[in-house]
Amino acid sequence: MIDKIDDLNWRILAILQQNSRQSLVEIGKKVGLTPPAVAERIKKMEDSGILEGFKAKVSYAKAGYQLKAIITLRAFMGKLKPFLEMVPGLPEVTNCYRITGNENIVMEVVLKDQGHLEEFIDQLIRYGETRTHIILSDVVSQAPIKQI
Amino acid sequence: MIDKIDDLNWRILAILQQNSRQSLVEIGKKVGLTPPAVAERIKKMEDSGILEGFKAKVSYAKAGYQLKAIITLRAFMGKLKPFLEMVPGLPEVTNCYRITGNENIVMEVVLKDQGHLEEFIDQLIRYGETRTHIILSDVVSQAPIKQI
DNA sequence: GATGAAACGTTGTGGTT
DNA sequence: AACCACAACGTTTCATC
Predict the structure, then answer these.
(1) What's the pLDDT at B19?
(2) How many CB atoms are closer than 10 A to CB B79?
């Protein structure tokens, strides 16, 4: 397996992060390799775990989720574990992290409307104290990972 | 253009969000359509903006970013606009949102190590007061959007 | 990594419901 | 309007160098 990423692979990663639906011919032209060489490099990066997958990005708004929010949770004593087991089942939660600091959890959630937000927060109050921040706009959204 | 998503399209979206590198033949088998019918549905969803794109997911850790953090910023008077113009140029910032509440901004950042984190925070102090939370673990990560 | 051939997938046309 | 069948085209993959 490979562990360091060379410049050519960084360029391939940049291309695939921007748009993964390009043919090996197109990618090869951009980086100066033949299609089989590109295919082999992509396969090796998948095998080594650098490339975790290829996913479609769906518009939250067009899918009917008009509201996004950041919610932090400060779990009650003994309620963190039940929360961690329950949260992957919530369809509204797109990201959830355990964090250091006064709060234990931060979540990014998508919601239909304010009523939906209210219902969602009501589900959480038995696990801990929440703080909600409505997202007004995306400044940076899923920026590609760049070379250090 | 289409504005509502029918059940068949939701199933196609679920498949593409899980793995966008499946052939039209495979997708067609799963949803009970022929490849041209699947292709036409995907094209229409792209045209209407429901499908925003196809992107490769890269491992932060394997790319050399050992640390993730959530940083909130409470911008100083007159410093929010300069910050919003500057932040898309920071390679460490993968997501950045304007939010309601006491803080104006929440960011998700990737970093090499603690020294890198320190340097990064130092860049921000001229724009406002920051609060940093190290991410200990991912509980939910880029969950697919589901049907309401 | 390149080349060339075979296998496979995608895309367009025409026709059906 | 949405889908199917089939053919033409492009892409991926595999053997060999």
Answers:
(1) 98
(2) 16
Cβ contacts of A101 on chain B, cutoff 8 Å: 131-133
Average pLDDT over residues A60-85: 98
Q: Using CA atoms, how far apart are residues B83 and B85, in angstroms rounded to an integer?
A: 5
Q: How far, in Å, are A58, A62, B36 from residue B48 at the CA level?
A: 11, 9, 18
- Note the pLDDT tens digit of each residue in A101-145: 999 999 999 999 999 999 999 999 999 999 999 999 999 999 999
Number of H helices, E strands in chain A: 5, 5
Give the residue from B41, B15, B14, B40 showing the smallest Cα distance to B26.
B15
For chain B, domains (ranges, CATH) are 7-47 (1.10.10.10), 67-134 (3.30.70.920)
pTM for the structure as a whole: 0.95
With beta carbons under 8 A apart, name residues in chain B contacting A63: 5, 13, 50, 145, 148
